[in-house]
Prior knowledge:
Number of helices: 9
Oligomer: single chain
Order of helices and strands: HHEHHEEEEEEHEEHEHEEEEHEEEH
Structural class: alpha+beta
Shape: elongated
Strand content: 15-25%
Amino acid sequence: MSGGDNSRGGKSSKRQGKSRVKPIGRRDTPAKKAQNSPKKISNPDEIRLNKFVANSGVCSRREADLYIQTGSVWVNGKPITEMGYKVKLTDEVKFDGRLITPEKKEYILLNKPKGFVTSTSPEKTKTVMQLVANASKARLKPVGRLERNTTGLLLFTNDVDLEKKLTHHKSGVRKIFHVELDRNLKFEDIEKIKNGIKLQEGFIQVDDISYIEGASKNEIGVQLQSSKNNIIHKLFEHLNYDVIKLDRVIFGGLTKKDLPRGHWRKLTEQEVINLKML
């Protein structure tokens, strides 16, 4: 019996001996401190300014730091030279005076239906933004505008440079409209429009105007480059015609082919290149 007791006691002694030895490199104290230390919560809506600049495609992040130090980057109208400065995605950031965005460039083409306002305001009940809400997570903006009852092609993008280029009055972007009037258009009135008409907005001259082949004389095709709002309505109203329907069928080489009314699609890479070359 005593021998058995000694044997158990020996094992117990060994276990106790082992428990007294502290393993090298294993200490519990720092781990406990790490668990108790407060975690830094980052704001998902904020981004470092150098990353914002780099993501816009202007330069690398390291180069962005140098540009920030020299005052080339402005946020909400003020130059920022602080390293590590954070901005919100909604802030206005300019690099050398040019507005930039960290988002991937997106280009969406919509075949606008009747009854939608070309507005980005959430206060409006029916806007074109609702029609492209699922097209992209980027902050898209319509390029130019179409009136509420005007249908047809409307481009959306977050590419600020391209948007400004396409809406500039000297851009030369080709736009073709299918116009339906309340009565047949007289041939002499076609000639007047071809020669140009002086309106309050200035002297307006279309690139081309003609009857639509196979249709009645109240259906007209009009090609022009002017970016003035509602200009086609005003042209025909000046000659005592009412525009019943107005549909933009071509915009800068883009067409409505395979794009049903109310639907959208992304531009192809080649289509984007073509627009930038206009």
